Amino acid sequence: MAEPVTRQELLNIIENAAREGWTELNLSGRAITELPPEIGQLSNLQELGLDNNPLNPALQSAYNAGLDEVLAYLRSLEEEAEPLYEARLMLVGEGAVGKTTLLRALTGQDPQKDKKTTHGVSIDIQALRLPHLTLPKTEIQFNCRDFGGQEVYRATHQFFFSRRAIYLLLWEPRGGVQQQGQVEEWLKLIRLRVGNEARVIIVSTHAKTGERIARIDEPVFRRNFGEMIVAFQEVDSLVDDEASGDKFGVAELKWVIAEAAQKLDQVGIDFNQNWKAARDELLELGQSEARISYSRFVAVCREHTLGTLAARTLMHDRR
Ligand SMILES: Nc1nc2c(ncn2[C@@H]2O[C@H](COP(=O)(O)OP(=O)(O)O)[C@@H](O)[C@H]2O)c(=O)[nH]1
Ligand SMILES: [Mg+2]
Prior knowledge:
The structure is a single chain. This protein is an alpha/beta fold. It has 3 domains: 7-81; 85-262, Rossmann fold (3-Layer(aba) Sandwich); 270-317. It has 11 helices and 12 strands. It has helices at 7-20, 57-65, 67-80, 99-106, 151-160, 178-194, 218-225, 250-262, 273-288, 294-303, 308-317, and strands at residues 24-26, 47-49, 81-83, 86-93, 123-131, 139-147, 165-171, 199-204, 229-234, 236-240, 247-248, 270-272. The protein has a 6-stranded mixed β-sheet with strand order 5-6-4-7-8-9, sandwiched between helices. It has a two-stranded parallel sheet with strand order 1-2. Strands 3-12 form a two-stranded antiparallel ribbon. Helix 6 links the parallel strand 7 and strand 8. The longest helix is centred in the middle third of the chain and has 17 residues, at 178-194. Residues 95-101, 112, 118, 205-206, 209, 235-238 line the site of guanosine-5'-diphosphate.
């Protein structure tokens, strides 16, 4: 039996085949679920063997129908792939430093209206769209997570792991001298969970209350946490800023968030639109149902013709 083939090996084979004008390509029994769209470039190809592979259902049915169908399927994948400008925005910090209020200010909601207290197990997920700073007509969508109470400590493993995240680490300058130590603890926790590639914006709230008691030593933080720290920002989520129409410091914070997100490797890479559609449907289900059963998950993936590989990445991304 032939060896399983990696995506890179497949691309190398295709490159060879293109150069040498192969008319036949046998990839039977190579543990293939998806094919790179590049196969479509093999203009001399007359026979393609894909037997005994765990092909994704869409590819399998195309294969059953013949080579033309496979090529049409691969073309459709290329057409539907679109860059995805999306990131997570994680609001972390001690209780009552202003996470919920800032999230409301960022998303243009009245900060004090029907305020829900965020303690216990709640995680508030809100969408925030910011214009891309250099690409016209492009927005970055942020899925923001505001962790209520102690939940963040318990949920750490699931919720911290993300390569497409920006962290807003909030602290309250009125809170006294222990603030510096708490900010440091949070940075350590983030580094532990995410690694040095985590991107953190340190935000002090209550900037306009005139009661700044605590200071944090920015050079020390920069020295100890290096690249992780994107910026130090100040906001007051309850005070209007005439010039921007946002709350004080929030317009600038949005700018810093957008800029940091644009630099993330995972923002703006091509994503299959079926994947995105399935993900959005699952997110929606997640709003109304506490748990989504495995069979329901599979059903949604099938409906959007996702292969097993794509479904698996989706399962991770939902966390
Ligand atoms: N003046 C002022 N009050 C704030 C600010 N941010 C939060 N607050 C108030 O501080 C309290 C705690 O805020 P909250 O957002 O619930 O904190 P969380 O526990 O971190 O989510 C609330 O009464 C808010 O109205 C701010 O920037 N300025
Ligand atoms: Mg809160």
